[in-house]
Amino acid sequence: MSVIALAALATWAYLILAHGRFWSSLPELMPAVPAAYPDVDIVVPARDEEETIGAVIASLLKQDYPGKFRILLVDDNSTDATVERAGRAPNLRLIRGDPKPQGWAGKMWALRQGVQAGEAPLILFTDADIVHDPKHLSALVARLPDLDLVSEMVHLNCASLAERALVPAFVYFFQMLYPFARVNDPRSRVAAAAGGTVLIPRAVLERIGGIDAVKGALIDDVALAQKVKAAGGSLYLGHSGLASSIRPYPHFADVWRMIARTAFTQLRYSAALLFLTVIGLSLVWFAPVALLFVGRPWERLCGLAVFAAAAASYLPTLRRYQRSALWALMLPLIAAFYTAATIGSALGHWRGAGARWKDRSYLG
After folding, report:
1. Which of 250, 266, 293 is the last residue of a domain?
2. Per-residue confidence band for 359, with pLDDT thresholds at 50, 70 and 90
3. Do residues 340 and 208 both lie within one domain?
4. Do 238 and 330 fall within a single domain?
5. What percent of the chain has pLDDT over 70?
6. Residue 75 pLDDT class (50, 70, 90 cuts)
7. How confident is the model over 116-163, as pLDDT tens digits?
8. What pLDDT, on the 0 to 100 scale, is given for residue 19?
9. Cβ atoms within 10 Å, residue 181
10. Which of 130, 177, 320, 361 has the most CB atoms less than 10 A away?
């Protein structure tokens, strides 16, 4: 227990003091005026998105951007009213997606078709559940002159009990895994993006081999950012004050499926990495709680200090989502949910279920 207490204390000291200020919930993209207004192709892949696509396209059409922009909606073989709900506009082009070839992730194949249909020097990839403030496109372009990729963690839906309990933690854990300050530091090898909005110059995309370079990636946003940074490019990843996801996760099972869909992919389908991850999560989240009940006095004090540090590190994210600080006391239980979903992701993979979205396997 003494070794566990000291290891947990040392781990959290590192996380708080030296892990890229992941807990700060910064930076945030705010309205800004670009120095120039180059043309932009906005590529929106959509598969069975009739519930959200109308609001998404309407928000894009309302962009206060003096330059020329065109929306390329790639209908990925939808079986619902996605196309009809999208509507029509002079700068909206519908692209009927071709069948997905072997070896391509569905979203990547849709993005490739959108890229090929456009010609603008800038490309904005955005999901079919993201609504945009009218100032959003200008703010993204304003960040780009000194960068090769601009991306954001959009504000996620946080209305149901499941969302209130688990969605802020999703953002918090993403920040822990990919500290934004390190992503944005050209000296750091950490690279990530958030797929809700990714703005990239066409020349940069072509330099890394186009969408083909990440054609099979299930965590496509991170894979794209890693390719750009590995090629010497510079990244910006922040929180968005100008874009929000309207995709609901009304039940705990919905959040479970969202996590399990790609959690084992993040671990490169490795049983060894899964084992080490569970051990690490146990040290970070569960050991401090156990120490409060079974440790000697000084070990309990270590457990209390670690628990307090973890809870305090969660507060900026809770404030961003306007949630009560009391949720910070639930972090070990929330972490247990995410750990179980990660294990469930591995079990699904080993059973042959694989990663699925919209009733279709990602690959094959």
Report:
1. 250
2. low
3. no
4. no
5. 97
6. very high
7. 999 999 999 999 999 999 999 999 999 998 899 999 999 999 999 999
8. 97
9. 17
10. 130
Q: Which two tokens stand for residue 296?
A: 């000697």
Same structural domain, 233 and 189: yes
Across the range 316-336, mean pLDDT stands at 97
Residue 154 resides in a domain = yes
Q: Are residues 239 and 335 in the same domain?
A: no
Same domain, 214 and 95: yes
Residues 352 and 293 in one domain: yes
Cα 308 to Cα 328: distance, rounded to the nearest angstrom: 9
Within a domain: residue 325? yes
216 and 140, same structural domain? yes
Does 41 map to a domain? yes
- Judged by phi (left if over 0) then psi (alpha if -120 to 50, else beta), residue 269 lies in left
Number of domains in the chain: 2
- Which domain-ending residue is among 250, 272, 300? 250
The predicted pLDDT at position 360 comes to: 56
Structure tokens at 256: 């479970």
Q: If we measure between CA atoms, which residue out of 329, 355, 167 comes closest to residue 252?
A: 167
pLDDT band at 326 (very low <50, low <70, confident <90, very high): very high
What the block records as the tokens of 240 is 């968005």
Residue type (1 letter), 95: I
Domain containing 224 equals: 31-250
Residues 124 and 231 in one domain: yes
Is residue 25 over pLDDT 50?
yes
Nearest CA among 273, 277, 293, 313 for reference residue 12: 313
The answer to pTM > 0.90 is yes
Does the residue 361 lie in any domain? no
Two tokens, residue 200:
């990239």
CATH code assigned at 51: 3.90.550.10
